[in-house]
Known about the structure:
The complex is a heterodimer. By secondary structure, chain A is an alpha+beta fold. Chain A has one domain (about 5-195): Glutaredoxin (3-Layer(aba) Sandwich), CATH 3.40.30. Chain A has helices spanning about 5-20, 20-25, 70-80, 85-90, 105-115, 130-140, 180-195; strands at about 35-40, 45, 55-60, 90-95, 120-125, 145, 150-155, 155-160, 165-170. In chain A, the strands form two sheets. Chain A has a seven-stranded mixed β-sheet, sandwiched between helices. Chain A has a two-stranded antiparallel ribbon with strand order 6-7. Helices cover about 30% and strands about 10% of the residues of chain B. Chain B is α+β, with helices and mostly antiparallel strands. Chain B starts with a helix and ends in a 6-residue tail after the last strand. Chain B: Keywords: Signal.
Amino acid sequence: xxxRMLFALAALCLGGALHGADNTPxxxxxxxxxxxxxxxxxxxxxxxASLRGKPVLVAMFYTSCRYICPLxxxxxxxxxxxxxxxxxxxxxxxxxxxxxDRDDVAALKRISDRRRLDTGRWSLVRTDAAxxxxxxxxxxxxxxxxxxxxFNHTSELVLLDADGRRRASSEASGPVPVESFLQATRALLNxxxxxxxxx
Amino acid sequence: MKTRTLLLSALLSTSALxxxxxxxxxxxxxxxxxxxxxxxxxxxxxKVAPFELMRTPISxxxxxxxxxxxxxxxxxxxxxxxxxxxxxxxxHGPVQLGPGVRGTQPVTRVSWFAADAYCRAQGxxxxxxxxxxxxxxxxxxxxxxxxxxxxxEAILAWYSRPSNTPLPDIAQGTATVHGIHDxxxxxxxxxxxxxxxxxxADNREQGDPDVMQFCGAGALSTDDRxxxxxxxxxxxxxxxxxxxxxxxxGFRCARSIEGARP
Lengths: 199, 262
């Protein structure tokens, strides 16, 4: 075995330790078993399961919604702002549209720009209608299309751990986060940082 | 292994082709169907576009073929996020019905996720509640038998049957005027939007994490008090999580018809 191969092997092992969570089987209650492809506000496609590795705040919304949906963004942002800088770096925020017919990439981009979301951390995403239904079922979000094109829907923020397991949830509450939900988010972020997945 | 898979898929596709007309029934739909759920936004009735519905519920035999074809849905392999621990527990093994379980009985103890996956594998989907309720409103002679007390009595009599007796085989009773079997009287059935039916009246109050909150308008009222046979079904379906299973809940699939308008 050449020295180069040894180096390559060592790098592989190291990589395996750092990204160990990606190689181990998903826990049975992980949402990342869902075979769903998401498309973000910049038109990038990625599998839902690729979110594995960091805690994620997930919610469902639609861009033409006037009442609760802006509040959903406010609520996720409220959590984001309440965290300290190092905690914040460990979190991703993903908002999934329940209105795939009208929420194309351009519509997602419009809201992302208008709300000045940091797309390093935030993704506004769309997927096909059947995947929306499955994702909502897994998240416990209930929604119904109304005759006028609006939707009735629950406005839950769901906190997933690095392996995609549901850890906490909170109804959208506006810019001031629900304290218990913030604490759960913080505890998870600090735990992930001190105990990287795979250790 | 490869030959087996090939054989199996050949078997599946031939039987699908040969039996297509036996499996699917086309329903004309309704421009303004009076659902028991009187949504505020659909006061004049629900539009049900023409669609196709399976003539019978999915049987144990059908579902066995599915899990043989897609082992990810076998008992013991399916992740907990998609099905709770009692998933298909009445079968003898993951790919074995065993004594006392007939291939001709309707499959039960399947989760919404499993039912959804089965239908998608057939190029189909679960029916919506409106489609299901519309199809199930018929009896052997009428498209809408719901105002007939005898129709309601028959459903309530079925509900009161003890659930510890073995399930009859599918397609034993009379078909509806559309030619569909077992919508009432055999098993309960998943619908695509089971979680969406009882989203309670609009509530934009903030602060209480236990209160479901909704965006947009669209309150529900159920002004057909006589029809509590149907309301009981709605309440049961609404109370379930998508990974739940029960001993008398099965499903059948539906297909949209391209370009069809109610």
